[in-house]
């Protein structure tokens, strides 16, 4: 007799060019390679138009099947995000830490996500991506500029800010381990 694995859907959102698709590919790579994404599969990523769904066994754990819904961050597609809100167990919001001119736009998009009724109490992992670049803002600067500290007062959910470089893999596994653990504990 074969037992079914528990399933969880994670929604990956953020502005265009923040690294969402590369992140989804990296997580899949970690899952398939057990701890290390292959550079070619992570580095050669085309931007998402609309959405993509990655299905995989959750990395670092057994018994959990993940559906990672990678949503396009272009302005014209952001209204589509809420199509998936009801069915997700966790949210990954990706911010490009090396593009401070877009922090206000990221703040607005993040606010729309966390205030949506269908996402109430669902865990939020905010990845501050591209931390490997010299031009990247610090984690505390990103948190301040996207209003995370202000939002945290009003968030009735588990949340975490995780600095990362999807390109090098640094910080990605720490964040996804936290989110998977948080989702499994619900």
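^ structure tokens above, recovered residues below v
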């Amino acid at each position: 007799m074969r037992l079914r694995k528990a399933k969880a859907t994670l929604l990956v959102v953020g502005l265009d060019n923040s690294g969402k698709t590369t992140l989804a590919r990296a997580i899949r790579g970690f899952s398939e390679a057990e701890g290390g994404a292959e550079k070619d599969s992570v580095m050669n990523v085309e931007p998402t138009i609309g959405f993509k769904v990655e299905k995989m066994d959750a990395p670092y754990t057994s018994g959990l099947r993940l559906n990672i819904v990678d949503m396009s961050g272009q302005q014209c597609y952001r209204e589509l995000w809420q199509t998936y809100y009801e069915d997700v167990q966790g949210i990954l919001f990706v911010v490009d830490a090396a593009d401070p001119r877009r922090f206000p736009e990221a703040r607005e998009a993040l606010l729309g996500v966390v205030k949506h009724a269908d996402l109430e109490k669902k865990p939020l992992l905010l990845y501050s991506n591209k931390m490997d670049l010299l031009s990247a803002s610090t984690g505390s600067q990103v948190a301040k500029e996207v209003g995370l500290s202000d939002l945290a007062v009003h968030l009735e959910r588990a949340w975490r800010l995780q600095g990362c470089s999807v390109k090098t893999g640094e910080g990605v596994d720490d964040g996804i381990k936290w989110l998977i653990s948080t989702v499994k504990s619900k």
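The chain has six helices and six strands.
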